[in-house]
Amino acid sequence: MVVTALECVLALLVLAPLAIALGASARASIIVYGASLLLTLALAIIALLVLLGHGPAAAVTLPLGLPWLGAHFRIDALSAFFLLVINLGGAAASLFALGYGRHEEEPARILPFYPAYLAGMNIVLLAADAFSFLVAWEVMSLTSWALVIAHHREPENLRAGFVYLLMAGFGTLMLLLTFGLLAGGSGAYDFDTIRAAHPSTGIAALVLILALLGAGSKAGLVPLHAWLPLAHPAAPSHVSALMSGVMTKVAVYGFIRIVFDLVGAPAWWWSMPVLALGAASAVMGVLYALMQRDLKRVLAYSTIENIGIVFVALGLALAFKAHAMEAAAALAFTAALLHVFNHSLFKNLLFCGAGAVLAATGERDLEKLGGLIHRMPQTAFVVLIGATAISALPPLNGFVSEWLTFQAILLSPQLPSWGLKLMVPAVGALLALSAALAAACFVRVFGIAFLGRPRSDAAVAAHETDSNSLAAMYALAALCFVAGILPGLFIDGLAPVTQMVVGHPMPAQGSIEWLSIVPIAESRSSYNGLLVFVFMTVSGVLGAFAIHRLASDKIRRGPAWGCGYPDAGPRTQYSADSFAQPIRRVFGTLIFSARETGEMPPPGSTAPARLTVTLRDPVWDALYAPIAAFVAFAAERLNLLQFLTIRRYLSLVFGALVLLLLVLAIWP
Amino acid sequence: MAVIADFAFQGAQMLLVLLLAPLLTGFVRKVKARLMRRQGPSLLQPYRDLIRLLRKDVVLADNASWLFRAIPYLIFAATWVAASLVPTFRSGLMFSWTADLIAIIALLGSARFFLALAGMDVGTAFGGIGSSREVMIASLAEPAMLMIVFAIALIAGSTQLSTMAAFMNSPEVGLRVSLGLGLIALVIVAIAENARIPVDNPATHLELTMVHEAMVLEYSGRHLALIELSAMLKLLLYVSLIACLFAPWGIGGADANAGLLLLGVGAYAAKLAAGGFLLAVFETSIAKMRVFRVPEFLGAALMLALLATLLRFVSRSF
């Protein structure tokens, strides 16, 4: 199995130079995306077979990499699950790109990096030693960076690329230090040896912090998220879908692999930073999203929110695991994994939808869209499914994972530690807040972009997207729906992963009557997506049937009611900014120090009145701006070193040497 | 045989809530009118209104999409299902395990999601103002509601409404601080969610003060009838929910005989009447708030509910 998987990855890597050779022809894009589609599908099938226990979880060692180490690869349940998530996302994005790629102006800047990027993510999941892991992580970062700056003529994208490169470097450095600490002095970098060695408490705590910084920066946890909303929208839409829907999952995998698998038994307080960062990300992410006007940036910020939810569930799993509450740990961990899976589906779908809108109108600014449901009815339909799913509304899949997370929170009063007892209710409240705000956010996105009347000529001239793109979106929407109404089957599929990572699976759900899900006991809580869906359909159809029998069937068309004012222009509609105004006023004044200043012209003047809104990013102000200022300050000072005389240089070197020798002499 | 009886009870529950919902709304209107020393319309007026709306043609705005026409059915379906899952006269109904209280709240969330979308479909300023305010109110009311659920679920050891009602009916529940806080918060949330005074005024058509009515301004005919019926169902749902959680007396168990069931129906009717009366008294004795006072009102509910949950986390006896 693992050999076949590696062959598929190798084929993806071979596609990259092939794409260069093929150049910028239309055929090249079909070959590259078509081959990527087939290869990712193959990888997804391999992962599914391993996850369902049909394939041996074999390991191979190849004579690559460090001379004394070799390159270790293996597929276990954890990596199989993430392989499935990544390759399903990859397949959907490739299928979407088969159509979307035709709109690309400079395909030669994207085609070589796209399969290499997919390969990089796959190798991260297959790697079973720190060296291969880090190399693949770096390949993933660099190829995605190249894709971010594919449209390099827009200065915004270059800035996004710069910030991304900095943060990716920071993240890799943190992971490098993590693995350095894990390997200890012996330098045994393969995962089996690391797992067998149990680091001391202090080292383990340091590893947790470093892993949180390293994987968290790639996943987009607040406050390490600054690069994400810049970089994700800058890339072409199918790559945005991969970065937001899939690459963040690789980061989650890295975190789980290090903290749950490699380090050993967790201490109870480990869950606290994870919970705090997760809850902060969930609320801040969605609040940022509500303030944005750029469609793809809204989606990028919403990824931060969803990653926050995943980390909250992971934090709960850590807390339960540390207190040996295995059933609860399995529940929380399953919630995290299910949300990872769900988010990869609907975020991919929504980014594809944004890509379709972008291709049809050339606009990402919500204020210039509107009325697209009339011109792109199919895209509107699938995006509506995605928006409902991501807002955690039943009977779609987003609700199931949030429901499981809430059930896990309801088990946490049994945790013995007081710190957690005080913290978890607040985290639960923040999670509930983020769920409600997410619904507000996606009402706004869908309502402004697809409903109402067109706000620009581009939106008037929009047309439905091509069939390949639609096929990809329909497939993702169908998966969202199936995962929502049959969650029990998906939970059962996750059992091997939970078994492996927390040592206890959730109770089997597949055999429960009517395909309900029951996390602990039926008297405690249960949910049945299928029946809710059937119920809703039956009552809706009954209602419709009764009404159409009883009621008048006539429909007249007329102008909308405008308080007697005829022909109100489309600009009198509520805009994205005005829609967010009440929420901005309630939450934004505190968090973003939002200020609104109205400017009224004097009586008699014909100048327009203006309302100016200013928002400040608290994280940028408090964290990044001081660091940037410090770096600039230090660079200014250190610049003097560039103009020393040769004698001074020599004495500097001499002094440094003496100091180093002194340190060595004193070192115990 | 047992299955048929189970189906019958579930069906009876669905019909009961559907038939009683307009009556409750009519009752509240009547009591309000009497309190204002007016005669008020007949109790049956809401039924007449619904039937009259059904007979009228639908006037659709030129710009309305297919979604605008589908949404009334979606809202009605979600609200009706949610209302049928709250125990009224008998607990342990056939499909009561389909969705727990969290899922019921999420079902109402779905209804609101689509209603807010409907407000934005035609592309007028009124719909947008209603939707925008609705999601602002919901962004505070929904977390408050979830925290109330947490607090009560932690006492009852379940989010399953039948189990919760059974626990609240048992002597071991006692008087608890967190339950009191939860009740106050739940009443505030129920008022906000049902667009009642002081948050919103169900009778107003003055654009700047309304939320719910602004969203549905473009609806007419059978679509409007469905949306009005859903709003009535939602009011009934919240009254039943408060009754089921805080006054579960008289709800028959799964093994109740005919006499107990009759008692259950009677008790339910009495609880609805009491709830409707209290709502009418409250509404006539308070003035509507400015929109931006509402967050403070709901923030109080959120804080109370959070406090109730926190008390449950730190101690078993509160």
TrEMBL record, chain A:
One of its GO terms (biological process) is ATP synthesis coupled electron transport. InterPro entries: ComplexI-like_HydComp, NADH_UbQ_OxRdtase, ND/Mrp_TM. The chain crosses the membrane at residues 38-66, 78-101, 121-150, 162-183, 203-227, 239-256, 268-291, 298-320, 381-406, 426-451, 471-491, 527-547, 649-667. The keyword Oxidoreductase applies. Residues 127-412 form the NADH:quinone oxidoreductase/Mrp antiporter transmembrane domain. It is found in: Cell membrane; Membrane. Pfam families: Proton_antipo_M. GO terms for molecular function: NADH dehydrogenase (ubiquinone) activity; oxidoreductase activity. Keywords: Cell membrane, Membrane, Oxidoreductase, Transmembrane, Transmembrane helix. It is a multi-pass membrane protein. One of its GO terms (cellular component) is plasma membrane. PANTHER family: FORMATE HYDROGENLYASE SUBUNIT 3-RELATED, HYDROGENASE-4 COMPONENT F. This is Hydrogenase 4 subunit B. The lineage of its organism: Bacteria, Pseudomonadati, Pseudomonadota, Alphaproteobacteria, Hyphomicrobiales.
From TrEMBL, chain B:
GO terms for cellular component: plasma membrane. It is found in: Membrane. The keyword Protein biosynthesis does not apply. The chain crosses the membrane at residues 12-28, 70-89, 101-123, 144-167, 173-192, 235-252, 258-282, 294-314. Keywords: Lyase, Membrane, Transmembrane, Transmembrane helix. Its main location: membrane. GO terms for molecular function: lyase activity. It is a multi-pass membrane protein. It comes from the Bacteria. This is Formate hydrogenlyase. It comes from Pseudolabrys taiwanensis. The lineage of its organism: Bacteria, Pseudomonadati, Pseudomonadota, Alphaproteobacteria, Hyphomicrobiales.
